[in-house]
Amino acid sequence: MSVTKEFAVKIDTELSSWYDKRWTLVSKLESAEDTKKFYEKHYPTRVEEIEKALTKIAEIKLEIGKVNIEIAKLNAIYNQDPWTRAFLVINSNGHVHSSMDCNTCFPTTRYQWLIQYSNDDEKTIVEDAGQDACTICYPSAPAEVLNRPSRIVTADKLAKAKAKAERDAKREARIAKEKANAPTASG
Questions:
Q1: How far apart are CA 85 and CA 117, in angstroms?
Q2: How far apart are alpha carbons 143 and 130 in whole angstroms?
Q3: 148 in helix, strand or coil?
Q4: Which of 12, 55, 129, 159 is deepest in the core (most CB within 10 A)?
Q5: Averaged pLDDT for residues 80-93
């Protein structure tokens, strides 16, 4: 079976949503487990609070199980005829990876799934990732591409660019005002 771009994007969009749900649930689970440990350590006689935490833990684990089933179903579709994928690590110097299993990452690494690159060829992904391309995931990346800034646009990058533009505009306005109020014509 030959996978179309539209099919790959559809599956990966749904799968990304399930991964996000699981991430949120795992965070809630960790919080509930911390709450339980807190009461067990500092207030062991507050059995009701401990039981509430245990109930919440059980509910969250059940939800995670349901989400894992949906993830497994979609991954089974992917595994039948895999296509290329791209994942951006969410941090200040995040690289673009071909999977969430790169040995340069950690179990706690958070990714932004670049669904717009699902089923694109590696060359396209590497070209757009530029210096952000992981050389482990994309060993074919030529040096001249890796030295070029990334062309991948994310909401985070757009927000940072907008904030920089606003700061620059304020700075320019302040400088213009200072020059206008200066005692000499040259400022």
A1: 6
A2: 9
A3: coil
A4: 129
A5: 87
